[in-house]
Protein backbone atom coordinates (compact mmCIF):
# COMPACT_ATOMS: atom_id res chain seq x y z
CA UNK A 1 0.00 0.00 0.00
CA UNK A 2 1.54 3.29 -1.15
CA UNK A 3 1.61 6.34 1.09
CA UNK A 4 0.59 9.73 -0.33
CA UNK A 5 3.13 12.46 0.09
CA UNK A 6 2.24 16.10 0.12
CA UNK A 7 4.62 18.86 -0.86
CA UNK A 8 4.32 21.99 1.17
CA UNK A 9 3.38 25.06 -0.81
CA UNK A 10 6.05 27.71 -1.02
CA UNK A 11 5.51 30.63 1.30
CA UNK A 12 3.56 33.52 -0.15
CA UNK A 13 5.64 36.50 -1.06
CA UNK A 14 4.29 40.00 -0.84
CA UNK A 15 3.67 41.72 -4.15
CA UNK A 16 5.47 45.01 -4.58
CA UNK A 17 3.21 47.97 -3.99
CA UNK A 18 1.64 49.50 -7.05
CA UNK A 19 3.46 52.72 -7.79
CA UNK A 20 1.41 55.82 -7.29
CA UNK A 21 1.33 58.03 -10.40
CA UNK A 22 3.26 61.21 -9.98
CA UNK A 23 1.74 64.64 -10.53
CA UNK A 24 3.53 64.86 -13.88
CA UNK A 25 2.07 61.52 -14.95
CA UNK A 26 -1.43 62.71 -14.03
CA UNK A 27 -0.87 65.93 -15.95
CA UNK A 28 0.33 63.99 -18.99
CA UNK A 29 -2.73 61.75 -18.89
CA UNK A 30 -5.07 64.74 -18.55
CA UNK A 31 -3.33 66.49 -21.43
CA UNK A 32 -3.82 63.49 -23.73
CA UNK A 33 -7.52 63.34 -22.85
CA UNK A 34 -8.39 67.02 -23.02
CA UNK A 35 -6.21 68.65 -25.68
CA UNK A 36 -7.77 67.02 -28.76
CA UNK A 37 -11.24 68.03 -27.56
CA UNK A 38 -10.59 71.48 -26.17
CA UNK A 39 -7.95 73.07 -28.38
CA UNK A 40 -10.63 74.77 -30.49
CA UNK A 41 -12.19 76.45 -27.44
CA UNK A 42 -8.73 77.48 -26.24
CA UNK A 43 -7.94 78.99 -29.62
CA UNK A 44 -11.22 80.95 -29.64
CA UNK A 45 -10.63 82.24 -26.09
CA UNK A 46 -7.07 83.25 -27.02
CA UNK A 47 -8.34 85.14 -30.08
CA UNK A 48 -10.96 86.96 -27.99
CA UNK A 49 -8.28 87.98 -25.47
CA UNK A 50 -6.07 89.28 -28.28
CA UNK A 51 -9.02 91.22 -29.72
CA UNK A 52 -9.70 92.79 -26.32
CA UNK A 53 -6.14 94.08 -26.08
CA UNK A 54 -5.72 95.31 -29.66
CA UNK A 55 -9.02 97.20 -29.98
CA UNK A 56 -11.27 98.85 -27.43
CA UNK A 57 -14.22 98.40 -29.79
CA UNK A 58 -13.90 94.63 -29.90
CA UNK A 59 -15.89 93.66 -26.81
CA UNK A 60 -18.94 95.76 -27.57
CA UNK A 61 -22.50 94.66 -28.27
CA UNK A 62 -22.52 96.31 -31.69
CA UNK A 63 -19.32 94.54 -32.75
CA UNK A 64 -20.58 91.19 -31.43
CA UNK A 65 -23.74 91.63 -33.50
CA UNK A 66 -21.60 92.36 -36.57
CA UNK A 67 -19.51 89.22 -36.04
CA UNK A 68 -22.58 87.02 -35.55
CA UNK A 69 -24.39 88.49 -38.56
CA UNK A 70 -21.35 87.93 -40.77
CA UNK A 71 -20.88 84.40 -39.46
CA UNK A 72 -24.51 83.30 -39.81
CA UNK A 73 -24.30 82.77 -43.57
CA UNK A 74 -21.03 80.83 -43.46
CA UNK A 75 -22.29 78.80 -40.48
CA UNK A 76 -25.24 77.48 -42.48
CA UNK A 77 -22.92 76.67 -45.40
CA UNK A 78 -20.43 74.99 -43.08
CA UNK A 79 -23.03 72.61 -41.64
CA UNK A 80 -23.91 71.35 -45.12
CA UNK A 81 -20.24 71.17 -46.06
CA UNK A 82 -19.53 69.20 -42.88
CA UNK A 83 -21.81 66.33 -43.88
CA UNK A 84 -20.17 66.10 -47.30
CA UNK A 85 -16.65 66.16 -45.83
CA UNK A 86 -17.72 63.60 -43.24
CA UNK A 87 -18.26 61.08 -46.06
CA UNK A 88 -14.83 61.84 -47.51
CA UNK A 89 -16.13 64.19 -50.22
CA UNK A 90 -16.06 67.92 -50.80
CA UNK A 91 -18.51 70.43 -52.29
CA UNK A 92 -16.95 73.34 -54.15
CA UNK A 93 -20.28 74.50 -55.60
CA UNK A 94 -21.90 75.87 -52.43
CA UNK A 95 -20.82 79.46 -53.13
CA UNK A 96 -22.31 79.37 -56.63
CA UNK A 97 -25.44 77.65 -55.32
CA UNK A 98 -25.80 80.40 -52.75
CA UNK A 99 -25.52 83.02 -55.50
CA UNK A 100 -28.11 81.17 -57.59
CA UNK A 101 -30.40 81.22 -54.57
CA UNK A 102 -30.22 85.03 -54.35
CA UNK A 103 -31.01 85.37 -58.05
CA UNK A 104 -33.95 82.93 -58.02
CA UNK A 105 -35.55 84.45 -54.92
CA UNK A 106 -35.18 87.96 -56.38
CA UNK A 107 -36.74 86.92 -59.71
CA UNK A 108 -39.66 85.05 -58.13
CA UNK A 109 -40.43 87.92 -55.76
CA UNK A 110 -40.28 90.28 -58.74
CA UNK A 111 -43.05 88.28 -60.43
CA UNK A 112 -45.36 88.85 -57.47
CA UNK A 113 -45.07 85.41 -55.87
CA UNK A 114 -45.42 85.56 -52.07
CA UNK A 115 -42.33 85.25 -49.88
CA UNK A 116 -43.10 81.76 -48.55
CA UNK A 117 -43.69 80.19 -51.95
CA UNK A 118 -40.66 81.97 -53.42
CA UNK A 119 -38.41 80.69 -50.62
CA UNK A 120 -39.73 77.13 -50.97
CA UNK A 121 -39.19 77.16 -54.75
CA UNK A 122 -35.68 78.55 -54.32
CA UNK A 123 -34.72 75.92 -51.77
CA UNK A 124 -36.09 73.18 -54.04
CA UNK A 125 -33.95 74.43 -56.95
CA UNK A 126 -30.82 74.51 -54.78
CA UNK A 127 -31.53 71.04 -53.37
CA UNK A 128 -31.86 69.79 -56.95
CA UNK A 129 -28.45 71.28 -57.77
CA UNK A 130 -27.04 69.37 -54.80
CA UNK A 131 -28.76 66.22 -56.03
CA UNK A 132 -26.98 66.60 -59.37
CA UNK A 133 -23.68 66.84 -57.50
CA UNK A 134 -24.49 63.63 -55.69
CA UNK A 135 -25.50 61.88 -58.90
CA UNK A 136 -22.22 62.81 -60.55
CA UNK A 137 -20.28 61.42 -57.61
CA UNK A 138 -22.37 58.29 -56.91
CA UNK A 139 -23.64 57.16 -60.29
CA UNK A 140 -21.02 58.50 -62.71
CA UNK A 141 -18.23 57.94 -60.16
CA UNK A 142 -16.62 61.30 -60.87
CA UNK A 143 -14.30 62.38 -58.03
CA UNK A 144 -16.10 64.89 -55.76
CA UNK A 145 -13.52 67.61 -56.36
CA UNK A 146 -13.95 67.47 -60.13
CA UNK A 147 -17.73 66.99 -60.07
CA UNK A 148 -18.42 69.92 -57.76
CA UNK A 149 -15.83 72.12 -59.48
CA UNK A 150 -17.66 71.58 -62.77
CA UNK A 151 -21.00 72.26 -61.10
CA UNK A 152 -19.60 75.43 -59.54
CA UNK A 153 -18.89 76.77 -63.01
CA UNK A 154 -22.19 75.52 -64.46
CA UNK A 155 -24.33 76.99 -61.67
CA UNK A 156 -22.50 80.31 -61.85
CA UNK A 157 -23.12 80.48 -65.60
CA UNK A 158 -26.78 79.55 -65.14
CA UNK A 159 -27.22 82.28 -62.53
CA UNK A 160 -25.63 84.85 -64.82
CA UNK A 161 -27.91 83.86 -67.71
CA UNK A 162 -31.19 84.06 -65.79
CA UNK A 163 -30.14 87.26 -64.04
CA UNK A 164 -29.67 89.16 -67.35
CA UNK A 165 -28.93 92.42 -65.47
CA UNK A 166 -26.25 93.53 -63.04
CA UNK A 167 -28.40 92.93 -59.97
CA UNK A 168 -32.05 92.53 -58.98
CA UNK A 169 -33.41 94.59 -56.12
CA UNK A 170 -35.61 92.98 -53.45
CA UNK A 171 -38.38 95.09 -51.89
CA UNK A 172 -40.57 92.43 -50.29
CA UNK A 173 -40.82 93.41 -46.60
CA UNK A 174 -42.09 90.02 -45.48
CA UNK A 175 -39.08 88.25 -46.97
CA UNK A 176 -36.59 90.78 -45.57
CA UNK A 177 -38.15 90.50 -42.13
CA UNK A 178 -38.20 86.70 -42.16
CA UNK A 179 -34.56 86.22 -43.17
CA UNK A 180 -32.81 89.38 -41.97
CA UNK A 181 -34.32 92.17 -39.91
CA UNK A 182 -36.87 90.19 -37.90
CA UNK A 183 -36.25 88.70 -34.47
CA UNK A 184 -37.77 86.22 -32.02
CA UNK A 185 -37.12 86.23 -28.27
CA UNK A 186 -34.68 89.13 -28.81
CA UNK A 187 -32.62 86.99 -31.17
CA UNK A 188 -32.19 88.03 -34.79
CA UNK A 189 -33.70 85.63 -37.31
CA UNK A 190 -30.43 84.82 -39.12
CA UNK A 191 -28.88 83.81 -35.80
CA UNK A 192 -31.95 81.76 -34.92
CA UNK A 193 -31.80 80.03 -38.30
CA UNK A 194 -28.19 78.93 -38.05
CA UNK A 195 -28.61 77.85 -34.41
CA UNK A 196 -31.58 75.65 -35.37
CA UNK A 197 -29.65 74.24 -38.34
CA UNK A 198 -26.60 73.47 -36.17
CA UNK A 199 -28.62 71.84 -33.38
CA UNK A 200 -30.64 69.69 -35.77
CA UNK A 201 -27.45 68.66 -37.59
CA UNK A 202 -25.76 67.74 -34.31
CA UNK A 203 -28.73 65.60 -33.27
CA UNK A 204 -28.82 63.89 -36.66
CA UNK A 205 -25.08 63.20 -36.62
CA UNK A 206 -25.05 61.78 -33.10
CA UNK A 207 -28.38 60.07 -32.53
CA UNK A 208 -29.66 58.81 -35.88
CA UNK A 209 -28.75 55.76 -37.92
CA UNK A 210 -28.20 57.98 -40.93
CA UNK A 211 -25.75 60.20 -39.07
CA UNK A 212 -23.75 57.32 -37.63
CA UNK A 213 -23.60 55.68 -41.05
CA UNK A 214 -21.90 58.80 -42.46
CA UNK A 215 -19.02 58.32 -40.01
CA UNK A 216 -18.71 54.71 -41.16
CA UNK A 217 -18.78 55.74 -44.82
CA UNK A 218 -16.11 58.36 -44.28
CA UNK A 219 -13.94 55.99 -42.26
CA UNK A 220 -14.05 53.10 -44.73
CA UNK A 221 -16.62 53.23 -47.55
CA UNK A 222 -15.90 49.70 -48.77
CA UNK A 223 -16.36 48.22 -45.31
CA UNK A 224 -19.55 50.25 -44.89
CA UNK A 225 -20.86 48.88 -48.20
CA UNK A 226 -20.00 45.30 -47.29
CA UNK A 227 -21.73 45.70 -43.93
CA UNK A 228 -24.99 46.52 -45.71
CA UNK A 229 -25.10 50.30 -45.30
CA UNK A 230 -26.81 52.19 -48.18
CA UNK A 231 -23.65 54.08 -49.09
CA UNK A 232 -24.84 55.44 -52.46
CA UNK A 233 -28.16 56.66 -51.08
CA UNK A 234 -26.63 58.35 -48.04
CA UNK A 235 -23.92 60.10 -50.05
CA UNK A 236 -26.61 61.32 -52.45
CA UNK A 237 -28.56 62.71 -49.49
CA UNK A 238 -25.54 64.55 -48.09
CA UNK A 239 -24.92 66.44 -51.34
CA UNK A 240 -28.62 67.25 -51.58
CA UNK A 241 -28.60 68.61 -48.02
CA UNK A 242 -25.48 70.64 -48.83
CA UNK A 243 -27.28 72.23 -51.79
CA UNK A 244 -30.38 72.87 -49.67
CA UNK A 245 -28.39 74.62 -46.94
CA UNK A 246 -26.46 76.62 -49.53
CA UNK A 247 -29.83 77.82 -50.79
CA UNK A 248 -30.84 78.74 -47.23
CA UNK A 249 -27.63 80.70 -46.80
CA UNK A 250 -28.44 82.47 -50.06
CA UNK A 251 -31.85 83.49 -48.72
CA UNK A 252 -30.19 85.07 -45.68
CA UNK A 253 -27.67 86.87 -47.87
CA UNK A 254 -30.35 88.12 -50.27
CA UNK A 255 -32.43 89.47 -47.36
CA UNK A 256 -29.43 91.19 -45.78
CA UNK A 257 -28.26 92.76 -49.05
CA UNK A 258 -31.80 93.21 -50.39
CA UNK A 259 -30.69 92.12 -53.83
CA UNK A 260 -29.92 89.08 -55.94
CA UNK A 261 -26.75 88.73 -57.96
CA UNK A 262 -24.65 85.96 -59.49
CA UNK A 263 -21.59 87.68 -58.00
CA UNK A 264 -22.70 87.05 -54.42
CA UNK A 265 -21.05 84.11 -52.70
CA UNK A 266 -17.64 84.28 -54.39
CA UNK A 267 -15.14 82.53 -52.11
CA UNK A 268 -17.77 81.37 -49.63
CA UNK A 269 -17.12 77.73 -50.51
CA UNK A 270 -13.53 78.12 -49.29
CA UNK A 271 -14.70 79.82 -46.09
CA UNK A 272 -17.09 76.93 -45.40
CA UNK A 273 -14.40 74.31 -46.03
CA UNK A 274 -11.93 76.23 -43.89
CA UNK A 275 -14.43 76.48 -41.03
CA UNK A 276 -15.11 72.74 -41.12
CA UNK A 277 -11.39 71.96 -41.07
CA UNK A 278 -10.68 74.51 -38.34
CA UNK A 279 -13.49 72.80 -36.41
CA UNK A 280 -11.48 69.59 -36.35
CA UNK A 281 -13.04 67.57 -39.17
CA UNK A 282 -10.71 65.44 -41.26
CA UNK A 283 -10.64 65.99 -45.00
CA UNK A 284 -10.24 62.21 -45.27
CA UNK A 285 -13.69 61.79 -43.74
CA UNK A 286 -15.05 59.94 -40.75
CA UNK A 287 -14.32 62.52 -38.05
CA UNK A 288 -15.79 65.76 -36.73
CA UNK A 289 -19.09 67.23 -35.60
CA UNK A 290 -21.28 70.11 -36.86
CA UNK A 291 -21.09 72.15 -33.64
CA UNK A 292 -17.29 72.26 -33.92
CA UNK A 293 -17.69 73.35 -37.54
CA UNK A 294 -19.83 76.28 -36.38
CA UNK A 295 -17.21 77.15 -33.74
CA UNK A 296 -14.66 77.08 -36.55
CA UNK A 297 -16.79 79.65 -38.38
CA UNK A 298 -16.61 81.96 -35.37
CA UNK A 299 -12.86 81.46 -35.02
CA UNK A 300 -12.34 82.67 -38.59
CA UNK A 301 -14.99 85.41 -38.33
CA UNK A 302 -13.42 86.75 -35.13
CA UNK A 303 -9.96 86.80 -36.67
CA UNK A 304 -11.26 88.72 -39.69
CA UNK A 305 -13.17 91.12 -37.42
CA UNK A 306 -10.04 91.87 -35.39
CA UNK A 307 -8.04 92.52 -38.56
CA UNK A 308 -10.74 94.92 -39.78
CA UNK A 309 -10.75 96.75 -36.46
CA UNK A 310 -7.00 97.31 -36.50
CA UNK A 311 -7.07 98.42 -40.14
CA UNK A 312 -5.34 95.49 -41.87
CA UNK A 313 -6.04 95.55 -45.60
CA UNK A 314 -7.63 92.67 -47.48
CA UNK A 315 -4.42 91.24 -48.99
CA UNK A 316 -2.68 90.52 -45.65
CA UNK A 317 -6.00 89.19 -44.37
CA UNK A 318 -5.93 86.50 -47.08
CA UNK A 319 -2.37 85.61 -46.08
CA UNK A 320 -3.28 85.29 -42.40
CA UNK A 321 -6.42 83.29 -43.20
CA UNK A 322 -4.32 80.89 -45.30
CA UNK A 323 -1.89 80.41 -42.42
CA UNK A 324 -4.77 79.66 -40.05
CA UNK A 325 -6.14 77.05 -42.47
CA UNK A 326 -2.73 75.36 -42.78
CA UNK A 327 -2.40 75.17 -39.00
CA UNK A 328 -5.94 73.80 -38.72
CA UNK A 329 -5.28 71.09 -41.34
CA UNK A 330 -2.10 70.16 -39.48
CA UNK A 331 -3.98 69.84 -36.21
CA UNK A 332 -6.99 67.98 -37.59
CA UNK A 333 -5.98 65.92 -40.62
CA UNK A 334 -2.21 65.58 -40.32
CA UNK A 335 -2.09 64.19 -36.78
CA UNK A 336 -0.85 67.44 -35.31
CA UNK A 337 -2.89 67.19 -32.12
CA UNK A 338 -1.61 63.66 -31.52
CA UNK A 339 1.95 64.79 -32.06
CA UNK A 340 1.50 67.63 -29.58
CA UNK A 341 -0.10 65.36 -26.97
CA UNK A 342 2.68 62.81 -27.45
CA UNK A 343 5.25 65.57 -27.00
CA UNK A 344 3.71 66.81 -23.76
CA UNK A 345 3.10 63.25 -22.64
CA UNK A 346 6.76 62.36 -23.10
CA UNK A 347 7.88 65.51 -21.31
CA UNK A 348 5.48 65.31 -18.37
CA UNK A 349 5.47 61.54 -18.20
CA UNK A 350 9.17 61.12 -17.46
CA UNK A 351 8.45 60.85 -13.78
CA UNK A 352 6.30 57.78 -14.40
CA UNK A 353 9.21 55.56 -15.34
CA UNK A 354 11.18 56.54 -12.26
CA UNK A 355 8.14 55.89 -10.07
CA UNK A 356 7.92 52.32 -11.31
CA UNK A 357 11.56 51.49 -10.60
Question: Could you describe the 3D structure shown?
Answer:
It is a single chain. This protein has 357 residues and is mostly helical. It has a single domain (35-336), classed as ABC transporter involved in vitamin B12 uptake, BtuC (Orthogonal Bundle). It has helices at 23-54, 61-86, 94-110, 115-138, 144-163, 173-181, 189-207, 209-219, 221-226, 231-257, 268-278, 290-309, 314-332, 336-348, 350-356, and strands at residues 168-169, 183-184, 187-188, 259-260. Strands 1-4 form a two-stranded antiparallel sheet. Strand 2 and strand 3 form a beta hairpin. The protein starts with 22 loop residues before the first helix and ends with a helix. Residues 351-355 have low confidence and may be disordered.
Features:
15 helices; two-stranded antiparallel sheet; 2% strand; 357 residues
In short:
The chain is mostly helical. It is built from 15 helices and four strands.
What is the topology?
Elements: H1 23-54, H2 61-86, H3 94-110, H4 115-138, H5 144-163, E1 168-169, H6 173-181, E2 183-184, E3 187-188, H7 189-207, H8 209-219, H9 221-226, H10 231-257, E4 259-260, H11 268-278, H12 290-309, H13 314-332, H14 336-348, H15 350-356
Antiparallel strand pairs: 1-4, 2-3
Helix pairs in contact: 1-12, 1-14, 2-7, 2-10, 2-11, 2-12, 3-4, 3-5, 3-10, 4-5, 4-10, 6-10, 7-8, 11-12, 11-13
- Can you tell me the residue ranges where pLDDT is under 50 for at least 5 consecutive residues? 351-355
The proportion of strand residues reads: under 5%
Q: What Rg do the Cα atoms give?
A: 26 Å
CATH architecture type: Orthogonal Bundle
Largest sheet: 2 strands, antiparallel
Helix content: over 70%
Output the number of helix runs: 15
Secondary structure class reads mainly alpha
Q: Major sheet: order of its strands?
A: 1-4
Beta strands, count:
4
- CATH fold naming: ABC transporter involved in vitamin B12 uptake, BtuC
Report how far apart the termini are.
54 Å
Task: Estimate the mean pLDDT confidence.
Answer: 85
**Order of SSEs:** HHHHHEHEEHHHHEHHHHH
Shape: globular
Highest-level CATH class: Mainly Alpha
Overall structural domain count:
1
Amino acid sequence: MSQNTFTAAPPLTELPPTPTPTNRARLASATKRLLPKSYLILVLVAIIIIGYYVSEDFLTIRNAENVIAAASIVAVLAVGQFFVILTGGIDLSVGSTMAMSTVIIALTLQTGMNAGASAAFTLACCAFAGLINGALVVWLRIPPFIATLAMMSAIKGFSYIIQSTSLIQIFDKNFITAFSSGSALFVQNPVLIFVIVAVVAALVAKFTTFGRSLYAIGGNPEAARLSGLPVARNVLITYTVSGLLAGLAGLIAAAQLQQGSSLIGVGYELDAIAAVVVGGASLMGGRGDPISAVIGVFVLATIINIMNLVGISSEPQLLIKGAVIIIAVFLSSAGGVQRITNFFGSRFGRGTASARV
